[in-house]
Amino acid sequence: MKYHHELNTIPLRKFTPVEMNLFFSIVSRMREKGDKTVRLTFDQLKDLSNYKATANNRFINDLEMTYDKLMDLRFGKRSANGLDIDRFVMFSEFKIRGTAKDPYVDIQVYEKALPLLNNLDEWVRYSLQQFNELQSSYAKTMFRLLKQYRTIGFVYFSKEDFHELLDIPKSYWNNQANIDNRVIKPIRQELTAIFKGLTIKKKYGKGRGKPVIGYQFTFKPEIKKADDFNKHAPTKEEQNKALALADKQKEYEEPATTINEKIKQKKRELELLQQIKQLEKEKEALEKQTQSALSEKEKKNLLSDLDNLFN
Q1: CATH of domain 1-122
Q2: Which helix (H) or strand (E) is 110 found in, with range?
Q3: Mean pLDDT by groups of 10 residues along the chain of 311 residues
């Protein structure tokens, strides 16, 4: 799916993971539709959003809660001097028809919100399926934010922006242990297998107790034309494997002090080099296979041209 990156800067206040799935599934179908009313059947929307519950009454309640929370979002703009302010809702129409033979939702984007979804010159793209399968709301939000920098592989958030964008409760703000366990931990758990080489580093300020002033996220950049629109979220096993590898890599970065630690570190470095070597072999084999397939195709085309020439 694609949308303007400005949509990423709006905190989805109090949205549950289910409500996030419903909202971004709707967004994925509203793109480039202008101000036309778009109809989505309940079945279509359930399928798009990976919705698990089966009862329509529950689904209608979740849709209504999603829209109610959308009404609280602060879409708009403010002039540089702060004297001119525009505020608007994203959808001008949101009709739920649960009594229809084939229940549906009719949705229309408000005119002033069209730039968020149409004629995109700066946009964010990712697999909706992958997003919907993530469990934690913090992991979902960070997934969207990191995808904005997917070809760069680096982003830094000040502590204030981090708290705001992830809608972290104020009760956590002065308790780093809460942020580590309830915010950072699920992000690492679910996203390390998606963003290769993901590392999260805290930036510390000066003063008493060295307070955290920001968070730096780095990962291996994706290629611009990466075919990642239909990817699934990693399984628990894949997540744990990626985390173990990341933790191992973290150990490499910590300086060894004793002789035994230095020996262990060298062994770990050797293991990593062997893994890299194996990956390079697999990559070379795949490239040769692709080249071979291409050359066979070219041979067939050449033979066909020769047949046409002499017949």
Answers
A1: 1.10.10
A2: none
A3: 53 82 85 84 90 86 90 69 74 90 91 69 58 87 87 90 90 89 93 89 86 92 62 64 64 57 71 72 68 58 52 47
